[in-house]
């Protein structure tokens, strides 16, 4: 995550993601827009600067977006699954290249930590 080329591309994709949200709002399209991990990294980083985040979103979208990381259900037909499918179609129709990006996709549940015992 510290390679400039990756970060610059992620910032550009974040801007495209925000553009899709704005476009959906203007067209009254309801879509739970699900970011890829590179976009989400930049979104979280943007939020680390609350005044800038607030000003930027109010200027571009007319509202501040809530960013809810609590929904983890990626099952078929669930909100994340449906939203991700919709944004893939919107992204690819508007921008051309695939929304899916190597190194920036959901990889499954985090493995449970292994507990080891130490004997003296």
TrEMBL record:
InterPro entries: GRDP-like. It comes from the Eukaryota. This is Glycine-rich domain-containing protein.
């Amino acid at each position: 995550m510290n390679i400039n080329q990756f970060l610059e591309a992620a910032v550009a994709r974040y801007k495209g993601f925000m553009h899709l949200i704005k476009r959906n709002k203007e067209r009254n399209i309801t879509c739970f827009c699900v970011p890829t991990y590179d976009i989400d990294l930049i979104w979280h980083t943007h939020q680390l600067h609350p005044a800038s985040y607030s000003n930027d979103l109010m200027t571009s979208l007319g509202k501040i977006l809530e960013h809810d990381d609590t929904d983890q259900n990626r099952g078929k037909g669930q909100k994340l699954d449906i939203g991700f499918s919709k944004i893939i179609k919107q992204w690819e129709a508007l921008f051309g290249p695939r929304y899916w990006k190597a190194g920036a996709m959901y990889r499954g549940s985090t493995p449970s930590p292994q507990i080891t015992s130490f004997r003296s």
